[in-house]
Design goal:
It is an enzyme of class 2 (transferase). InterPro entries: GK/Ca_channel_bsu, Guanylate_kin-like_dom, Guanylate_kinase, Guanylate_kinase_CS, P-loop_NTPase. It holds the Pfam family Guanylate_kin. The chain has a single domain, classed as P-loop containing nucleotide triphosphate hydrolases (Rossmann fold, 3-Layer(aba) Sandwich), CATH 3.40.50. Helix content is 42%, strand content 22%. The chain has helices spanning 21-31, 62-70, 89-97, 108-115, 131-141, 146-163, 178-193, and strands spanning 10-14, 36-37, 41-43, 57-59, 74-80, 83-88, 101-105, 121-127, 171-174. Strands 2-7-1-8-9 form a five-stranded parallel β-sheet, sandwiched between helices. Helix 5 packs antiparallel against helix 6 (146-163). The chain is globular and about 45 Å long. Bound molecules: adenosine-5'-triphosphate. Adenosine-5'-triphosphate is lined by residues 15, 17-23, 137, 140-141, 175, 177-178, 181. Adenosine-5'-triphosphate (ATP) binds at residues 15, 17-23, 137, 140-141, 175, 177-178, 181.
């Protein structure tokens, strides 16, 4: 396969937390390592030894970060332990300029930001078979506290309502059986890249 694609797409993958997005993407990237590029995030943390600005991250000051927030430059941004991180629209465009498709794994608010941007994106929603099954997976993953699980479940209901609006997504994949769901995702995305 050629290592670059003409007119590569931006693919937005969303869906409730615990629905299986990371599991599906990990497989997709492993199966097609040449097809996708990763956007470089901005961060207010300082570079560690060996890290280069613009490679691992765009390293910026808190003031610059706030400026970018005010300009609506970010698709998503968040603060962890006092450090801010964000995915900018420009960073996603850089990936497509290099001839690689860019997949964004983002939440509903980020999806809305992409819809409001000039990115030419395809929207894929990964839907759990049911809210009960989603709860089972979140518990099974064992990475969340009870409080976090409840928060994720109430956010999931909002995401499902949003996804139910006709035309919100180009493709809805129900992640019931992982093999089947993966094949559907792989076929759809490789179809976009063909
Ligand atoms: N089809 C499936 N059937 C059963 N279990 C699954 C399936 N797909 C994923 N899982 C399991 O569900 C759990 C949640 O999956 P994963 O971490 O990929 O979700 P996610 O959507 O990426 O969540 P987050 O948005 O919180 O990162 C994992 O333990 C994973 O192994």
């Amino acid at each position: 396969m050629a290592s670059t694609i003409s007119n590569p797409p931006v693919i937005v993958l969303s869906g409730p937390s615990g629905t299986g997005k990371s599991t599906l993407l990990k497989r997709l990237f492993a199966d097609h390592p040449e097809s996708f590029g990763f956007s470089v995030s901005h961060t207010t943390r300082g570079p560690r030894a060996g890290e280069t600005d613009g490679v691992e991250y765009h390293f910026v000051t808190p003031e610059k970060f706030q400026e970018l927030v005010a300009e609506n430059a970010f698709i998503e941004h968040a603060t962890f332990a006092g450090r801010s991180y964000g995915t900018s629209i420009a960073a996603v465009k850089d990936v497509t300029k290099q001839g690689r498709a860019c997949i964004l794994d983002i939440e509903m608010e980020g999806v809305k930001q992409v819809k409001n941007s000039d990115l030419n994106a395809k929207f894929v929603f990964v839907q759990p078979p049911s809210v009960e099954e989603l709860e089972k997976r979140l518990r099974g993953r064992g990475t969340e506290t009870e409080e976090a699980i409840q928060k994720r479940l109430s956010a999931a209901i909002k995401e499902l309502d949003f996804a139910a609006i006709p035309g919100t997504h180009d493709k809805i994949i129900i992640n019931d059986d992982l093999e089947r769901a993966y094949k559907e995702l792989d076929d759809y995305i490789m179809g976009l890249l063909a």
